[in-house]
Amino acid sequence: MTLSLLFEQLLNGLQLGTMLFLMASGLTLVFGVMGLINLAHGSFYMTGAFVTAWVTGTTGNFWVGLLAGMLAAAAVGAVVEFAVIRRLYHRDHLDQVLATFALILIFSEGTRWLYGSSPLWLNVPDSLAGSVMLPFGVEYPLYRLAIIGMGVLIAMGLYLLISRTRLGMRIRAGENDREMIGALGVDISTLYTLVFALGAGLAGLAGATIGALQSVQVGMGEPVLILAFVVIVIGGIGSIKGALVGALLVGVVDTLGRVLLPDLFKLFMEASAASGVGAAIASMLIYILMAIILIFKPNGLFAVKH
Amino acid sequence: MKKVMNAGLGLMMAAAIAAPTQAEDVKIGMITTLSGGGAHLGVDARDGFMLAIEQAGRDDVEVLIQDDAQKPDVAKSLADEFVQREEVDIMTGIIWSNLAMAVVPSVVRQGTFYLSVNAGPSDLAGRLCHENYFNVAWQNNSLHEAMGEYMSTEGFNNAFILAPNYPAGTDALEGFKNRYTGELANEVYTQLGQTDYAAEIAQIRASGADSVFYFLPGGMGIAFMKQYAGSGVDIPVYGPAFSFDEIIIGAIGEAAIGVRNTSQWAYDLDNAANQAFVSSFREKHGRTPTLYASQGYDTARLILDALEVAHPDDKDAFREALRAADFDSVRGDFRFGTNHHPIQDIYVREVVANGDGVTNQLVGVAVEDMQDVYVDQCSM
């Protein structure tokens, strides 16, 4: 393991982390403000990717597609909140899980019905194609670097939104005491719809940017959703700061584990067995990390006090 | 009077409809994957199969189709329904090896014929081979083995090999190593369903390998290849056709150009049966068939060919007719080994630009008359 390889893998971990943050921030906001467990968050990720692929294919412009994908995911989020989610706030978590799981099935089959079951085309825009030279002799894909940059910008934007704006003030108030801000005359249902649409839009943005790197297909949101849940449990459910730290931690640990563990096992095992065992343990690593963190911090790293 | 006549007429009609089902009708049960991430394989296998059935124009052959959603338990209960309630004569259609292992052994033991359109797990070719089981596609290892041999003859001596960590993935790398004579730069197993390969690509870059061999079917392959092309690594890439079927390379786009892959079939193979198949498939479905479609088509044609000789109720005669494999396969020469798995040529294809998109083009033959390595373990 050379220094340049280690540096490159750290960047890869960071890039995975920023993507997870986009997913986890929406999930944790919705839970923090509305007390809702939303399994259908992965469907907004998928919606963003499909709309981006479709609009990019029609207009030939990735940026128009990206904007459309993000807005479409936010719009779909708002509609779903208005039509379904609104009825779930006062129900217990099991009902919420059941109803939002049903939404996953509806979204998946609906998308298959609209776009078919074959994966869709979406390529990295020409302006971000190729790779650049970084310090330590690392040649790194420009697009992934742009993702990291975008993630940093969005994290800062969210921080400013929540700490400096009136909407953010209401969101924080909603996290602290839901009944009270309603009593103070804040239009709570509009606030909920806005927060939900914001989370959905961020998920859609994540799906669209990752869609260009991977494949746009039905069911693409669920694996990411599971990771996002791990992130918010590690970070403390409801905490944006926790989501950021948790996402970066999961991204870096997962990436480095995949690379380092097989090499570690090769020290005392036969090569082909070591890569199998190493890969198996690496896939469990973030769950082991979550378990260890929960032993010492049962409510996550940045537990929100209620 | 009128009532009696009506009743009589009804009875006659019922007799006319019922009579042939007694002796001559043939019922085929197809269980395949039509939903979920792996759906395009099942859809193509089905479309190829049904194309041959429709072309035959026989109204005494009935095909029942069910979706297994890529779940072994669903496939198993569908199989029980087909065998016990529908009493089908022949079953076919399963794409995935883990599903085949859940279904095939009990189906063939109950006396129903099973013809595999795709899955070819090693146990069914060796230890668990059965007189009622025929594989019309390949044994799982075959395409990987052929690529191992091809890359050795091309002079590669330091390959980086990569597959998901599940049975077909380990089989793939074992199969590859079977005939590959060079050194390995590294052997990496990824998570099944993984979509981000940045860490593996960085390892490939740092490994100093002279070639990359990977088996990543479906969405995994699309993700890997797109990211590989964007990473600036220019080590040549090889793999089995499962990583590079027409649908996958369509989604990868230009990034796939230049990749070579092994397949038992190519749409531009020059034989009359294949040309007829490809043009009628394109006409009906508006797309170029994948190897899965060719396997479905061949399976149906083998069944239809054997039906000319005997009805499946006459098990020995029908089995002999299948074993003879007298049909014109779209892949050219085709015969069965003693374990009822194909002995066939494995070809090499290269991904080339084609108008706006990309397509596979036949380059040559990797291995002639290839037979699987498990045939000796089969006691038939």
Write up what this structure looks like.
The complex is a heterodimer of chains A (306) and B (380). Chain A has eleven helices and two strands. Chain A has helices spanning 3-34, 41-59, 62-83, 93-115, 142-164, 166-176, 178-183, 188-213, 221-235, 240-266, 271-296, and strands at residues 131-134, 138-141. In chain A, helix 1 packs across helix 6, helix 1 packs antiparallel against helix 10 and helix 2 runs parallel beside helix 4. Chain A is globular, with a radius of gyration of 20 Å. Chain A starts with a helix and ends in a 10-residue tail after the last helix. With 380 residues, chain B is α/β, with parallel strands linked by helices. Chain B is 44% helix and 21% strand. Chain B contains 13 helices and 13 strands. In chain B, strands 6, 7, 8, 9, 10, 11, 12 and 13 form an eight-stranded mixed sheet that branches. Chain B has a five-stranded parallel sheet with strand order 2-1-3-4-5, with helices on both faces. In chain B, strand 3 (90-92), helix 4 (97-109) and strand 4 (113-116) form a beta-alpha-beta unit. In chain B, helix 6 (142-153) runs parallel beside helix 7 (167-179), helix 9 packs parallel to helix 10 and helix 12 (291-309) crosses helix 13 (315-324). The radius of gyration of chain B is 22 Å and the shape is globular. Chains A and B meet through helix 1, helix 10 and helix 11 of A and helix 2, strand 7, helix 8, helix 9 and helix 10 of B.
List keywords for this structure.
heterodimer, A: about 300 residues, mainly alpha, B: about 375 residues, alpha/beta, eight-stranded mixed sheet, about 20% strand, globular
